[in-house]
Amino acid sequence: MKQEELKTLLYDEIAKCNRCGFCLPHCPVYTVEGKEWATPRGKNALVRAIIEGKIGWTPEIEETLFRCTGCRLCTQVCLPAVETNAGVLAGRACLAEKKQYPKIVDRVVGALENNFNISDEPNEDRSQWMDFLKNVPEDRYQREKAEVVYFVGCVAAFFPLVQKIPLAFVQILDKSNIDFTLLGGEEWCCGFPLIQMGMVDKMDRLMEHNQEKVHQVGAKQVVFACPSCYHTWKEKYKVKADLLHATQFMERLINEGKIVFKNGFHNTVTYHDPCDLGRNSNVYDAPRNILTAIPGLKLIEMANNRQLCTCCGGGGDLEMIDPELSAAIAGRKIREIQDTGAEVVVTSCQQCVRTISGYARKREIDLKVMDITEVVLEAMGSY
C-alpha cells in the first residue's frame, strides 16, 4: 500500500480520534506496557502523522504497529467508534512494501508459499491428527462429494495441543449423521496470517485454490471451528456455500434434535469470547445457547464478556512477533477467569485454547481450558 492510498482510505477515519483516552484501560497491549505508543490513541496519532508527512517510517513505527492483537475492543468503547485496527493493518501494509517488518514474517510467508500452511510441514500431513481417532473410516472423511466441508485450519491441524478440537468435531459430525468431508492435503491456509502482516496481495493463490476445492465438492455449507478462518472467509472469499462457525452449526443440530446430550456436563464454566468470533464476527449467542442447553452445566459470565470480553493475547500474530507480550496479556486474562470461581473456562477458538492453557501450564496454574467442541462431545456421550 502506498502512502497516498493510506491517506485516501483512512485519513478521515483516523482523524475521528479526539484523543480522549477512553480506549486506554481496555487495550490489552497498553495494560501491559503502560506507554503511550502502545495505546490505540497513540497508534492513530502515529499513522496520522505519517499521512501528514510529519514523521517517516522509522523502526519505532514498525515496533508499534506490529504490537497489536487486532481485538478491536478499542473501537467497541470508542464514542466515534474509530477503526484503529484498520489503520494498524494499513500501516503494516505500507511497512511490508518497504520490507520493514519483524524477520519472522519472511519465515511464515515462505511456509505459506512452499507448503500452504503456517507450520511449514508437508501439507499432505494436514490430517495426521486423525491417527488418534478410533474407528476411522477407510476414506478418512475425505470424500469427492458432500453437503458440508469442515475446514480445519492450520493451527488445529498441526499444533498437538489443539488437535483435540478437530478430533472432537469430526466425532460430533459423525454422531449427528452429517454428510461432510475434510479437504485433507487439499486444504490450504485461509490467508489470515497474511492479512495481519499487511500482505493481503499474497492471498489470491490460497483463496482461489480453497474456493475451487469447495466448488468441486459441491458443498452447500463450509463450517469452521477456527474463528479466524471463519472471519477471513466471510470477509474475503466468494463462494455460494453458506459459511458457518462450528457454534452456529452445532446450535442448529441441537435445535433439529440431531445432537442429544445423554451424559450432560456437570461443571461450573465461564465462557471466553474469541475476538474474531465475537467482536469481529458478531457471534455471541450461539456458544451460550449451546452451553445452557447442556444438562448439569452452570454458566458464570466473566466481568468483561460479549462485546467487552478482553483478549487472551493470541490475536494479530502477536504470539509470533512478541511472545513475552502475548504471555503477559494471557496472564491478565487468566486472573479474570479465576475471579469467576468457575471450574472450567470454555472458548470456541484453537488459538485462545493454546494461549490460555499454554500460559497456565508453564506457570503451573491449575486451570482447565476446553474448546466448546470438547464439551459438546463429552455431553453427548457414547451412542
Distance between the termini: 54 Å
User: How large, in whole angstroms, is the Cα Rg?
Assistant: 21 Å
Please report the number of helical segments: 18
Overall 3D geometry? globular
Could you name the CATH topology of the largest domain? Rossmann fold
Question: What proportion strand?
Answer: 5-15%
Count the domains. 3
- The chain-level structural class is alpha/beta
* Architecture (CATH level 2) name of the largest domain: 3-Layer(aba) Sandwich
Please describe the biggest sheet, giving its number of strands, its sense, and whether it closes into a barrel: 4 strands, parallel
Question: Helix amount, in percent?
Answer: 40-55%
Mean pLDDT: 94
Major sheet: arrangement of strands = 2-1-3-4
Structure report:
There is one protein chain. The chain is an alpha/beta fold. The protein has 3 domains: 3-97, Fumarate Reductase Iron-sulfur Protein, Chain B, domain 2, CATH 1.10.1060.10; 104-255, Rossmann fold (3-Layer(aba) Sandwich), CATH 3.40.50; 268-380, Rossmann fold, CATH 3.40.50. 46% of the residues lie in helices and 8% in strands. The protein has helices at residues 3-14, 28-33, 40-51, 59-65, 73-77, 84-97, 104-115, 154-158, 164-175, 192-196, 204-217, 227-236, 246-255, 285-293, 318-321, 323-339, 350-362, 372-380, and strands spanning 148-151, 180-181, 221-224, 242-245, 268-272, 298-299, 344-347, 368-371. Strand 7 (344-347), helix 17 (350-362) and strand 8 form a beta-alpha-beta unit. The mean pLDDT is 94.
